[in-house]
Amino acid sequence: MRMSFFMARIAGCGLETRGIGALPLMKKLAGSGDRINRDSPGLRRFPENGLSLSMQGEDVGWMRRAMDEARKGVGRTAPNPPVGAVVVKDGVEIGAGWHRGAGLPHAEREAMAAVRSTLGEDVLRGSSVYVTLEPCSTHGRTPPCTEGLIEAGVARVIYAAEDPNPAHAGGADALLAAAGIAVTRGVLAEEAARLIRPFAKVQRCGLPWVILKTAMSLDGRITRPPGEGMWLTGPEARAEVQRLRAEVEAIVTSGETVRKDRPRLDLRDPELAAGRAQPWRVVLTANPNNLPKDAPLFTDANRQRTLIESRDPPEEVLRKLVTERGVSAVLVECGGRLAASLLEAGLVDEWVAFLAPMLCGGPVPALAGEGFPDGLRLRQPEFRRFGSDVMLRAEVLRD
């Protein structure tokens, strides 16, 4: 087996260190001292299966574990970024946590709190903390994480991406080093940066990360053949759309789509919807009086989450979502005209296209308008299959 396989693998049978149920066993495993028994069953540890890995390899493995924690916060933490952290001692994970939202403890403090609740304060001393984003170093809604790490007496901090917030960027290293804590930065930096793209864009230009979703036939049409149902794609692809909606805080559509398709634009998967607010539904229209009053967006249980905005200019609508609603990521589900206008205006960051194995013909293209004279290039396209449909997901390149 390749070494990369072992570096990416984090024991699937590890003991969850959070919660009261783990407390007696964890204390027993810890013993009377503050050193963790590497051979104790049920704990996540590196290296695995006797494979000797370098410290760099271990860092990659544990950072991937921290990434797993961070992904739990995607779509939940705006205006803050999703962040995950893992506390490791003697090659064993002793605590993990993720940031759950603005004003709540950051991931590092969540992970250290998990250790304190199961093993006690002393075990933190000499440990290593892996975190997907540079620890904050200033007071905000919560105290700085650098302060908490120093007080805990950790020996080493390893983080992936530098904080794009100029108030924090680069501030952690000197503070931690001055306290005698070894700092390693840039482990899986690119992966971590992808995870916080919405937050980084807001910090950079005050606009949310915009994902354009399109479902179309192989000939680029978005209408079903006459006499068939309204769906182009199958249930597996529609389930993936639910997961896309769970990544964002707002869904934008057009008045034309509301009139023709009467969409709900909500999270219907109970597992995805649990513990999170339904996304804002934003209708861009030049004529609000032409919207059907009985459409689901205005009559369902989430009608208070529906906003009607002028279609022109869409950039200002997006900016308002950031400043007034705390939105950092938006999914656009609309017809060909609005989709093309957003692309032409340079407002789309990512395109997700679901391709159904059919030819529809007809006059309704997925992208209307005059076209793009120089074409639009996509970066790092990802292809996945859902049932009989294929999904393409890629960033839209800008000049």
Secondary structure tally: strands: 13
The main sheet comes to:
8 strands, mixed
Note the total helix count. Answer: 14
Instruction: State the distance separating the first and last CA atoms.
Output: 42 Å
**Mean pLDDT across residues:** 86
Give the SSE map:
Elements: H1 3-8, H2 23-30, H3 55-71, E1 84-89, E2 92-98, H4 107-118, E3 128-133, H5 145-152, E4 156-161, H6 172-178, E5 182-185, H7 189-195, H8 197-205, E6 209-217, H9 235-245, E7 250-254, H10 255-261, H11 270-273, E8 280-284, H12 296-299, E9 306-309, H13 314-325, E10 329-333, H14 336-344, E11 350-356, E12 378-386, E13 389-396
Parallel strand pairs: 3-4, 4-5, 6-10, 6-11, 7-8, 7-10, 8-9
Antiparallel strand pairs: 1-2, 1-3, 11-13, 12-13
Can you walk through the features of this model?
The protein is of the alpha/beta class and 399 residues long. The chain is 30% helix and 20% strand. It contains 14 helices and 13 strands. The chain has helices spanning 3-8, 23-30, 55-71, 107-118, 145-152, 172-178, 189-195, 197-205, 235-245, 255-261, 270-273, 296-299, 314-325, 336-344, and strands spanning 84-89, 92-98, 128-133, 156-161, 182-185, 209-217, 250-254, 280-284, 306-309, 329-333, 350-356, 378-386, 389-396. An 8-stranded mixed β-sheet has the order 9-8-7-10-6-11-13-12, with helices on both faces. Strand 3 (128-133), helix 5 (145-152) and strand 4 (156-161) form a beta-alpha-beta unit. The protein is elongated. The two termini are 42 Å apart. Mean pLDDT is 86; it is low at 1-33, 38-43 and 45-53.
